[in-house]
């Protein structure tokens, strides 16, 4: 018998679908992972890898094949008589084919600097994408906590509906035995219909909010999904880690690297070279036959005077750094104002919740007294409903304020960018 019971319970557990749980932190992570903009980071990395390959190829030797055939109107002649022997004159038709090889030996580290700049550009562009993705968290807060508020509202409306249903039955019994006026229960029945309308409207709004949340996280979210109300600790003194700050820093590093590249453009470039060829004439212009030839050597290019062009370009980059500093200061100024406003909101909601407890305690006493008066025929159903609605309005407000407080904390965490403010 026991085995049969255990088997039955196991079958029921296997058939009954487990409720899916979704946390706020999971919503953040899924939204960043699945938002279309997120794919740009991988594309940027692939693009930067290709560009790095191009830069590194500047270390490889360069090969050039040259060929030329020409005919000229005149050639150099040497009018010297060497005892009846003359020096052969070069033909006017000439031919040459060469292979030229050039290998970079020294350029002041310009290639390494360009490679480092490409890395910084990638980091900066990827960080700019992360800045945009970070803003999605605010939208997730609106949908996630909005859904929690609507669920609390629906739950309390259902509780209110059930409580009034009990009052209707009591009034119907009183009318039956003549202790209440006929149709007294209709007042409460009308209120129940009104509650049903409010619940249907809230359910419709909840469906819309969950649909939007589902679209952002690319995961099904419906009425059956359990959304956990996070418990959050706010660490005011902890340092912030907004992605915008890192983006400003990377942009400054980019400019510094550009200044370094400009400075290295003033260094000499030293190359090793080799040339091998075949033609008529060769290097010996006095030999009028086809011959092969070659040359090896080292050469240097050095722009020793650039008319102050590099200095002016570096000054322009310094101005760009000043502009970035102005952006950073503006961001910090606005961010600090947002933080102050968020803290004020948190403090106000905490005080409101303390007052909610007092209000509910008083409303419960009043509603209990009104219920007793209704049963004894001292007050009308309409008068009872006034106090009953006041009680449930206070309860709804309390639940909404609880959710609003956690949303305000979540907003503070996003504004602060504080990694130590973990969700629990």
From TrEMBL:
GO molecular function terms noted in the UniProt entry: efflux transmembrane transporter activity; porin activity
Keyword annotations for this protein? Cell outer membrane, Membrane, Signal, Transmembrane, Transmembrane beta strand
Q: Name one GO cellular component term.
A: efflux pump complex
Q: Which N-terminal stretch is annotated as signal sequence? A: 1-18
Q: Where in the cell is it found?
A: Cell outer membrane
Say which domain of life the source belongs to: Bacteria
Main location class = membrane
SUPFAM superfamilies noted in UniProt? Outer membrane efflux proteins (OEP)
- What is the designated name of this protein? TolC family protein
């Amino acid at each position: 018998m026991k085995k049969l019971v255990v088997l039955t319970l196991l079958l029921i557990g296997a058939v009954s679908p487990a409720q899916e749980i979704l946390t706020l932190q999971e919503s953040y992570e899924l939204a960043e992972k699945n938002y279309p903009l997120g794919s740009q980071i991988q594309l940027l990395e692939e693009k930067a890898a290709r560009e790095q390959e191009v830069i590194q190829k500047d270390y490889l030797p360069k090969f050039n094949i040259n060929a030329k055939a020409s005919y000229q109107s005149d050639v150099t002649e040497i009018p010297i008589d060497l005892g009846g022997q003359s020096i052969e004159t070069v033909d006017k038709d000439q031919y040459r084919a060469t292979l030229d090889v050039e290998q970079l030996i020294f350029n002041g580290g310009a290639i390494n600097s360009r490679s480092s700049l490409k890395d910084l550009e990638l980091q900066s562009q990827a960080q700019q994408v992360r800045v945009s993705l970070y803003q999605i968290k605010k939208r997730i807060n609106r949908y996630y906590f909005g859904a929690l508020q609507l669920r609390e509202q629906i739950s309390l409306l259902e509780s209110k509906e059930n409580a009034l249903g009990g009052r209707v039955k009591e009034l119907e019994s009183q009318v039956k035995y003549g202790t209440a006026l006929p149709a007294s229960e209709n007042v409460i029945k009308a209120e129940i219909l009104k509650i049903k309308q409010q619940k249907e409207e809230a359910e419709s709004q909840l469906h819309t909010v969950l649909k939007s949340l589902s679209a952002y996280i690319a995961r099904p979210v419906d009425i059956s999904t359990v959304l956990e109300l996070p418990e959050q600790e706010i660490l005011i003194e902890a340092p912030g880690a907004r992605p915008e700050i890192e983006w400003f820093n990377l942009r400054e590093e980019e400019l510094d690297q550009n200044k370094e590249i400009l400075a290295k453009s003033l260094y000499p470039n030293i190359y090793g070279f080799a040339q091998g060829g075949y033609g008529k004439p060769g290097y010996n212009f006095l030999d009028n036959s086809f011959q092969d030839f070659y040359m090896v050597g080292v050469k240097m290019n050095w722009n020793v005077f650039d008319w102050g062009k590099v200095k002016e370009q570096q000054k322009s980059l310094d101005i760009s750094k000043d502009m970035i500093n102005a952006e950073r200061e503006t961001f910090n100024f606005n961010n600090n104002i947002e933080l102050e406003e968020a803290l004020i909101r948190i403090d106000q909601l905490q005080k409101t919740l303390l007052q909610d407890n007092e209000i509910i305690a008083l409303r419960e006493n009043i509603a209990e007294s009104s219920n007793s008066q209704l049963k004894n025929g001292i007050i009308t159903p309409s008068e009872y409903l006034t106090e009953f609605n006041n009680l449930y309005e206070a309860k709804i407000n309390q639940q909404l304020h609880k959710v609003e407080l956690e949303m305000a904390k979540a907003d503070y965490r996003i504004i602060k960018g504080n990694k130590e403010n973990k969700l629990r």
